[in-house]
Write a structure and sequence with these properties.
Layout: H1 5-23, H2 28-47, H3 55-63, H4 65-76, H5 85-99, H6 104-110, H7 113-162, H8 187-199, H9 209-223, H10 229-245, H11 251-270
Length: about 270
Amino acid sequence: MLLSRLDLVVVWWCLVAAVVAFVRPLEAAPRRHVLGGASALGLAALATTWLPTTVAGDVLRTLLPALFVLGAYWTAAGYVVAPDTRLETRLLAIDHWALGALRLPQRLTTGPRWVLEGLEAAYLSVYAMLPLGAWAAWAHGRAAAVDRYWTVVFLAEASCYLVLAWLPTRPPRDLERWAAALRTRSLFRHANEAVLTHGSHRMNTIPSGHAAGAVAVAVSLAWLHVPLAPVFAVAALAICVATVVGRYHFLVDTLAGALVALAWWWVVSASL
């Protein structure tokens, strides 16, 4: 079977990730991590061409790319070095200037709990949003729609991870003491922090992978004229708001993530 557009994109990303590992001044172990992850991810993408043209094969081709996104995330973890504290200070200053009128510390720590729970649930939902979006694309347009969908989503998410090599920062929740109080007010906050503690490298991505992935899902489904696209658009907006309000990302991260998703959608749609 010929390589799909998504397979080619994943392989090219792996090559770029490997080049970046040599361009950046990494130590031997992190460089091996990136090279090993890129090799495994590239081979996994190539292996999908051997999946049978059966119902089971279609299901795997529809859902497996979610693991490609996760693989790109962990491959880029090798780029993580000491955080750029000067950049963190600048990003916090922008947030305090742009969001100061919202009085987030007071509203989130003393306001209605249901607001915080809703935002935290939205943030957590992105992990289900990607495969659910793929399923919606398949139900509407089968293999061709799924390939277009995952091409945009993978490019949007994975390109954000590469930037870790140049812009290493910690998330604002680790820099603002008041954010620690939120875990006592929200069950979904506990769930999110458990996922981030045990399933992430705990560094911030600029642009935000959460925002980029959510917006990429929404615009891809709208582009494919999937009937459920408006539902995913509302979810994407809620996720973007949650990334900032919950202090998982700086405002700049989230805005940049949304723009990255729109840019890759334009590139992919223009190439067809």
